[in-house]
Specification:
- This protein folds into two domains: about 40 residues; about 160 residues, Cytochrome C3 (Alpha-Beta Complex).
- The protein has five helices and seven strands.
């Protein structure tokens, strides 16, 4: 009887020891797997792309060796109290980003000087190209696309020999003329389109990153 009791105690102790050993071994293996996974940073591919496509944050190559930036910061030395604003050129230039969301916007929606003078619409008055700028035109011409700052300067930073463009408008029967500086030009171009899109598609308000003229902090990010 005593022999049986001792044998039972030894058997239980052995089973417990084996159980503890396997538990420790399994936990060590699991922690090792989690540690390995945590040390690896996955690099997701852009939407609708394969491993052979250009990453979304690089430049988009076109014929002739020129490139089109996919993303960039608008006015890096901005004087705005709200900070700089990021801009995704790839989305705005190649996806259905028209106000109604049904078509791709034309280049001249932003690059308004890159079209013949006969095609200009008020308040635009400056023409720097004999044909309307398109992607095909960009591929086949050596003429560079002007940056906004080449005409729309910052207040107090107008280069010698240059003149700040102005805009004249009537509001409530009163005619007002304003300097079309860099900040105002950006706001008119961006806000007009975004407000029109929101009016046609109110559901855009729920889309991360979308902003109207009243949502300053969505686009502007302070650096301090």
């Amino acid at each position: 009887m005593k022999y049986t009791a001792k044998l039972t105690v030894i058997l239980v102790f052995t089973l417990c020891a084996f159980g503890a050993f396997f538990k420790i071994a399994y936990r060590g293996r699991t922690e090792s797997v989690y540690s390995t996974q945590a040390s690896v940073t996955p690099t997701p591919l852009p939407a609708n792309s394969t491993s052979n496509t250009v990453a979304a944050n690089t430049t988009k190559p076109v014929t002739g060796g020129d490139t089109i930036p996919a993303t960039f910061t608008l006015a890096k030395d901005s004087q705005s109290e709200y900070g700089e604003a990021a801009f995704n050129h790839d989305n705005h230039a190649f996806k259905n980003y028209s106000a109604d969301g049904k078509s791709v916007m034309g280049c001249v929606e932003c690059h308004h000087t890159d079209q013949p003078k006969s095609a200009l619409k008020p308040p635009d008055v400056t023409s720097q190209r004999d044909v309307v700028l398109t992607l095909d035109v960009f591929k086949t011409t050596s003429q560079k696309v002007s940056e906004c700052r080449s005409c729309h300067f910052q207040d107090g930073n107008v280069p010698e020999g240059k003149t700040m463009p102005t805009a004249t408008y009537t509001d409530g029967g009163k005619t007002t003329t304003k300097d079309m500086n860099n900040q105002l030009a950006f706001h008119i171009n961006c806000n007009t389109c975004h407000d029109a899109a929101f009016k046609l598609r109110p559901e855009l308000k729920c889309k991360p990153g979308f902003a109207t003229s009243k949502d300053c902090s969505t686009c502007h990010k302070t650096t301090n």
